[in-house]
Amino acid sequence: MKAQRLGGWMTRFKRCIDAQVGAAVSEKVIVEPERFDATTDYVQKAEWIRNAVERLEKEAGKPAAKKVMQACGMKCCGPTQHKRVKQFMKESKSVEELLARLNERGIGGGRLELKDRNTIVGGYDRCYCGRVKQTREPFPTDTYCQCSTGWYKSLFEAAFGRPVKVRLKQSIIQGADSCEFEIEFD
């Protein structure tokens, strides 16, 4: 890739690709980034991302592409969210109380609930990702939305201080009415 300054999201995307699957892959995936950075048309941004994710899946394979997107989401959920969720956890006497605090503030979609002893379910009634929410064509796979699984993973690992597993059940940009997730913890 030519030495050029990439915008904030694009820089994070490239760094995640480089870290997970290598710079040679990012050179094949990040094609004409100036088209993405220069436009204010979010339909065009969504189209650029859909095409980039398809290239990423082709070059790295779907499992690795999903890891890249999850890594992006983990970086998106940063120190401010970690600090807040740790404080909420400290102030809570139970997981249910933590979820109530998060829901009151609309964090994580505002409808988190404990499904059973070790599983939280949650989701979004609208797509929160400004880069893709105005897509005109559904995304063909759930790879891009692994970014949200990474966000939830980062948030709840900060809260609990231990690993969690997050599964995407359905996605708005794939045509569903809502995004739905399951978060498993021990």
Query: Which shape, going by the Cα principal axes?
Result: globular
Uncertain runs are none
Strand fraction equals: 5-15%
User: How many domain regions?
Assistant: 2
**Cα end-to-end separation:** 43 Å
> What's the Cα radius of gyration?
17 Å
* Neighbour order of strands in the largest sheet: 1-2-4-3
Q: How confident is the prediction overall: mean pLDDT?
A: 94
Largest sheet composition: 4 strands, antiparallel
Q: What structural category do the secondary elements indicate?
A: alpha+beta
Helix content class: 40-55%
Number of strands: 4
> N-to-C SSE series?
HHHHHHHEEHEE
Q: How many individual helices? A: 8
Question: Helices, strands, pairings?
Answer:
Layout: H1 8-21, H2 23-29, H3 33-38, H4 42-60, H5 62-76, H6 79-91, H7 95-104, E1 113-116, E2 119-124, H8 146-160, E3 165-170, E4 179-184
Antiparallel strand pairs: 1-2, 2-4, 3-4
Helix pairs in contact: 1-2, 1-5, 2-4, 4-5, 5-8, 6-7, 6-8
